[in-house]
Amino acid sequence: MKSGSTLTTWLSGLDGSRLARVLGARRDAMAPPEPRTVGELADRLQRPGSVALSLRRLALPHFQVAEALVALGAPASRAALGELLGAADGEAARDLDAVLEALADHALAWPDGAGDLHVAGSLHQVWDAPLGLDAPLEELLADTTSEELRGMLAALGVRPPGVKQQRLAALVDHHSDPEQVVSVIAGAPEAARELLERRAAGTPGQPRSAVFGTAGDGLEPGERWALERGFLVQDRYYYGPSRMPAEVALALRGPGRHAPFDPVPPSTRCAPVTSREVDHEASAAATAFASRAVSVLSVCSATAPVRLKSGGIGARELARIGRAAQADDAVVRLVLETAHAAGLMSPDGERVMPTEAYDAWTQQEPPEQFAVLLRAWRDLPLTPAQARDEDGKALPALAGAPPCNGCVQARHGLLAAAERLPAGQGATVASELGSLVTWHRPLAHPSPTDGTPFATVIREAELLGVLVRGALSALGVHLWTGDTESLDFECRRLLPPATTTARIGADLTAVVTGTPSARLASLLDSVADRETSGTASVWRFSAGSIRRALDAGLVRDDITADLAAVAAGPLPQPLSYLIADVARGHGRVRVSPAACVVHGAEPALLAELAAHRRLAKLGLRQLAPTVLVSRSPLDATLAALRAEGYAPVAETAEGTVRIERAWSPQAAAPVPAPRGTGTPSGGRIAAAGGVNTSAPVDPGALALQLLKAPPTLPDPAPLAGGRPFATDTEEIVSGWAKHLPYSDVRQLAHAIDTGGPITVEYVAASGNRTVRTLSHLDLDPPYLEAWCHLRDDGRVFTLSRVHGVMGLVPE
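The structure corresponding to this sequence follows.
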């Protein structure tokens, strides 16, 4: 029986509360349009993309049990599973039952009416060789002839039945009995017995070419004996080494060898830590980061970072920002990536520019500013503080690399691991949390630094005040639960409001305790040089910094008035003298722009040129009786003068007359204009390309609705006599997307009609399969135009190459 039909049967037999648990654990299956039947729900739950999304949230024991079930083959008995994992009774058996219950809640494994366990079909694609085992005997012998099966049974001493299916069933029956398998192999020739034991232990076989002639027929010693009895199976076309059926390997491994099963997380050395200590240090870390974030983004706003030709902000620009903001590289990278994810900064041509959202962000108080960046960090599809790749090559920031789900899982795994530490305890060494992260999120990317797994993400959490003394702070707790309202409250509780005044001393320094307001930071950055940042920031006034403010258009009285307005007391006399002295000498020498110089020996002629109305477009300005400067380039000035009847000559940089030679230009090859695919309106879509903005569906209400409906509905047919499609879009999509079942057609058509985001599995003409998030879909049969979040650009897709669809939901 197919897993889809058994899943439909199992789901139909659940009560409303249990089905609601399944829906709550697999929220992607409820994505609009909601499934109308339990059969359609089962179809969505079996999709490879949906199964992969569910696996990301599972801990190590869930993976281990799922792998064991795949290795056993479906259906598998509870007893066989317990024996394989060494969890047949006692506490281990209770742990196994709890894991099976969780897998059932995720619709990844479920019992049938007889109590046997089935798994989602897509799980078989996760492991090439689960537990180091090959495919079951029945699968390996699918192409074997009836006569070959008869020979195998005869060699085993089993009377062959009459037809192929009966013979195959008899052979499977024999090999499924471990005692019989072990008994037969015990009496095998020594070479065959050693070969089989070696293969069962996981040592792969050799290609035939590598052993040609070793036994006279291209087989390893003893291999012929094993092939004749079905203990090894050779490909019909002799491609690759012979394969050992899973039943034979399990029998030879014996009951004493168990598959790994770790239901208890690894222990971590802990030390007591009070909530008061955690709050104090979390407040200090968060306040320091918020202050540095204001500084980093203020520097980027004043001078937008230049992007590399290959994309992203390179090491030189990062170092410049760090020096100006007094922040180290990890902080700069973390601020830039979170600000970009929050929509505060966006690439614009050759630079990364602040957006309108940044202007609104600067008007907020530090707690609100910090909360924006903290929420963005939780689901960043990368590890921003990682400065080098595996080869030691420097990584640019904001490089637009493909999303790394393993990086997201590392962050979520760290939050989960720290949240489950004993109350009032923190990891003695924060790096030891790495083993717990691996247990909670086996798919997490470790991003090792100096060989320490998860060191980078742990460092990020400490910089943000999420992790303090190896324990999760209140910020981390609400970040993990996703409680936005409580997270905002904790940010307001732990972070002080912005400081709007500065202590300006006679030593020409300005000291700001806490996080300076955006206005105060902007003012001090414009008239002074920042020396330190953090819980206390220091700026120093100098002749150069005052001159920089005057160059920016400020005047002496404005600078004095603005500083007096933010000073905690009267301005010190040395600062007033400094401002006056620099302002007195400012502008005594002026430098004018000039594209070229026009000069001659006749003052009257030069005056005539300066006053000529038709030459006004050149921007001529007289500096001396015989000298004019032009704002236009040399060649344009020459052409304009000649057009008005004058006969100028051009000079070289050395002052000699330039000799002009005629030349014949060659036309450049025409370049077709690119197809316009502007960024869709509405700004940047957050979190992996978008979040469905529809009202959330209540799992309990949908569960009751599904249980009242018939288990399945027939697929619609556009022909007479069939149930019509719900919309015209469904009918059009169904006509072109031949690989999609009707439930997928419904979701894709709904995304087209509503403009919502959707995830598709797309097979390119080259045969490469990619999973893409699309939004702003426009149907143009047989094509689909959409904004592709994988390429961050508009793309055209062929409907017939869409092989799967899955609704997009936040993790």
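The radius of gyration is 36 Å.
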